[in-house]
Structure formats: C-alpha cells, structure tokens
Amino acid sequence: MRVGEGFRLADQDTGSTPGFSGDKTDGEQALDDGAAILADLQERLFAAGMLGERRSVLLVLQAMDTAGKGGIVTHVVGQMNLGGVRYAGFKNPTHEELAHDFLWRIWKQVPGAGEVGVFDRSHYEDVLIGRVRKLAPDEEIERRYDAINAFERELAESGTTIVKVMLHLSKDQQKERLASRLDRPDKHWKYNPSDVDERLRWDDYQDAYQIVFDRTSTSYAPWYVVPADRKWYARLAVQHLLIHALEELGLEWPAPNYDLEAERGRLAAS
User: Fold this and answer.
1) How far is Cα 69 from Cα 75, in angstroms, rounded to an integer?
2) Between the CA of residue 221 and those of 27, 116, 136, 259, what are the distances in Å?
C-alpha cells in the first residue's frame, strides 16, 4: 500500500484486501485481536513521553466523502487511550486562519511528546480542494507542496513518525453510500448537498491526489493508499499501519527515576 516510484492511483483496486486473505468475519476478529496490541504500544509511547521522551506519531487521514474516515476514528483510534490522543478535524478555515499561511492552523495541532496525533483531513486540503476549485493561484499551489515537505521533514526530525493514509474509494461505492444516507433518517444529518458537487469533480480530485503522491510521498513521510470499498478491511489496514509505526520505535517501558526498593519500603511503612 505504500506509494513508491511509478505508483498510479488509477491502477489501484479499491475492492482489494492486500496482505489479508480472510473475509469480513476474519477481518473483524483480527481488528479485535489487534486492539490490545495497539493500546499497549500507545501506552508505552505515552509513558515515555511523560518521562521526557520527545517521540510521537501522527496519522493523517485523507479521502473523498464517505470513504470511512469517521469509522477509522471510531473503530481504530477509539481502541487507544484517548488521554494520549490528540485529534484534530480540519474543516473550512475561519477568517482568522485565512489571514495566516495555510500551515498556521496545522502547526497548532501537531502531537506533543508521547502523543498519537490524528488529522481528520489536513494540510493536504489546501492542495487538493485548492487545486480542484482553483481557490489559489497556480504558483501558490506549487509553493505549498514544497512547504508541506519542509513542514513534514521538520516534524520527522523532531521525533514524529508520520503515517499518511488515503482511503481509496470507488466512485460507484461512494454513490451507494451517499444514497444510503438519504434512505436512512438516522444518517440524514451526515448528508450534505455539497457532497454531490464535489462528486461531479471526481476525476479532477483523482488527478489532484496523484500529484500529491508524486510530490509529497517521501522517505520521512510516506503515503499509504488503503483500498476502502470494504470498511472492515480499511480499518484493519490502518490499525496495522499504526501498530507497525509504533513497533518501529522499539518502545520499552521506561525505567523509574526513583529508588524502587526504597519506595516499596516507604509505602509499606505509611
């Protein structure tokens, strides 16, 4: 799923399950099995941060509407201790945010030491929507790719592991999911007429994503394209991308910064 040289978004099968041979039932069981592993690794990261370690993890989620970002937040991020999670959902910028550089509001939400950060949409909106809707001049959009790379390099060099995920949904599957929102009263609130407006620009968005991958999938902040037609698989895949990122940190429980035996004695005598 990692974007490498020669990657073409148009060639990816949105209904595939790379790396997993089971069915939905197997996938849901695997997700349950992975929950304890993810929670344990996150707690180790949080404990290390409390004792002075600078490392953190940042999960960036990008997708077309209905691709399942909310499900990832609920079913994957929700498996962790939310006290150690820094969640930021980026919507249309406010007037104050528009008065600054596009990364101004992003910097304010980066994870601190020991945290797992989650960007539900992100700084990439400014080169996706910005490009498709022509919200900024071409030269400004071009500048932003380099600014993003510099921003992510600085994060990586300061101890943040960056995992960027694009949930890759088919156009037909999106249509089914939007129709389902119209058919279910409990989902009407999730439907926005503007979703159809963006859908009419589908091909333009696919082209914009391809440029993003070409320009910003780097060794220090790689992109992963996760097939998203099967929600259960997308959740499992993102869970394991997070597990892998945390395992790569080689986290151990931090040693106490006090005399363990002396404290046992003091506690017993108290």
Assistant:
1) 10
2) 27, 15, 25, 40
pLDDT digits (tens, 9 = 90+) for 77-120: 999 999 999 999 999 999 999 999 999 999 999 999 999 999 99
Q: Are 218 and 60 in contact (CB under 8 A)?
A: no
Sign of CA dihedral 62, 65, 68, 74: positive
Q: The tokens of 82 are what?
A: 């939310």
Among 86, 83, 80, which residue's Cα sits nearest to residue 56?
Answer: 86
Q: Which helix (H) or strand (E) covers residue 163, if one does? A: strand 160-168
> What is the spatial order of strands in the sheet that 56-63 belongs to?
85-89, 116-120, 56-63, 160-168, 223-227
* Helix (H), strand (E) at residue 59: strand 56-63
Taking every pair of Cα atoms in the chain, the longest distance, rounded to a whole number of angstroms, is 72
